[in-house]
Specification:
single chain; hydrolase; alpha/beta; 8 helices; seven-stranded mixed sheet; 311 residues; five-stranded mixed sheet; globular; Metallo-B-lactamas; 12 strands; Metallo-beta-lactamase, Chain A
Length: 311
Amino acid sequence: MSTSQHDHGRMDPPRVQEVADGAYAYIQPDGTWWINNTGFLVGPEGVVAIDGCATEARTRTFQETIAKHTDAPVRTLINTHHHGDHTNGNYLFETATIVAHEKTRTEILNLGIMEVESIWPGVGWGGVRAVPPFLTFTEGVTVYAGDLRAQVRHFGAAHTSNDSVVWLEEQSVLYTGDLIFNGGTPFLLMGSPAGYLEVLRKVKELGATTLVPGHGEVCGPDQIDYAIGYTEFVLETARKGREAGLDPLSVARETDLGEYAALSDSERIVGNLHRAYAELGGVERAGAIDVYAALGDMVAFNGGKPLSCYA
């Protein structure tokens, strides 16, 4: 099912779900392109926010929502990775220390605000500008909101080169960033299918009972297994396609997605195959490939129509 086949006309407004005492998920329906989830941890002296949103308006609404729950300021903003739906709003957190993996900073500085009008036209981005994190780590860092202890951990290249999770071990709550798309197709074009499998297995070992995914509804650890299954499907499809001498777009057009056909944004299979082909051909995990060419093939897979974005 392509993005355009989903009914976005009655999209529900964002909502807050308390996942532990003082820990909240901010869920933005319907979780498709550029419509991400965020979160926030409330302590007596300050708030830790987990990601911003794609547009100025959505990020301001998120900030207003936090303010309805506490008078405490947002002192810390964690970026789970560099993609703009999670970081375009960084500039609005003017008094917060922005924390992320060191490669998140590098990617934001290199990419800025990506030019995507030809792929996702007509989005009201507002006055977004690229602001990178300025407190970075290589493997992990621990942040606190009152008594809430949040371990920010990087396990390797997966969805991107720089994914981090936020792990509340005592509460068994995991903010996964885009390691999990609940109800959506995983997207690995800027990451690594092989790395994604390894990272998912490490994340599963944490033993979290409640997951706040980067997109979609709050869920349980079964979504980790589902993502593992999808990625194994992509890798096997890529191997067969390369052996047959077919390009990623041709393989995608011939592939029966089976149980994964019901996921939103199914055109991501094309980008995922581009990355899998590159890795099978010897490109390092999350190494440089022609991302815009792959996005162009995704548009072609979508019948030549730009991809839908309702952010």
